[in-house]
Design brief:
mainly alpha; 183 residues; 9 helices; Tet_transcr_reg_TetR-rel_C_sf; TetR family transcriptional regulator; transcription cis-regulatory region binding
Amino acid sequence: MPKVTQEHLDARRQLIVDAARACFSRHGFARTSMADVVTESGLSTGAIYRYFKSKDDLVVAVCEQGAAAFPTALTAEAITGLLEHVRRLAREHGHARLTAQIWAEAALEPALGDIVRHQLEALRAAVVALLPERRAPDADQIAEAFVALLAAYSQQLAVRDDVAIEPYTRALLAIVDNPESPS
């Protein structure tokens, strides 16, 4: 019997995670069954359970892969590109709806809460790393506000398809560039 490669196992696992992500985005966590994931993936029930013991394990796997591409600069062009990327994921893959569900579950489920907190910390750290030196004294507060506004944009996309990018770009740039710090 030929040995299955690690690449094959990883690809199969990713296929299952992608199928679960699609189901969760369309129907929500509560209304998605393992049978739905089986159908979406085209695999057998046994194949799914070989990689994931439960739907909760699938939710965690989807959440762990939730980090978005972050720009390498905090310019108008880079921020607009980031927002366009978030909007494209929302429109084409239901990512904003999925993120909204993950946040709601994370408020109740400690394991998901830990993952989301870690992802938010990483996002804030990425913002801090890109801030101009003159903003260093306020870096943590700036990063907190930047990430909060970015999350609000995603949450709006979860329920509205017509969210304009321009106001969010201007607001995010104002957060990053404003040399005045609150007293």
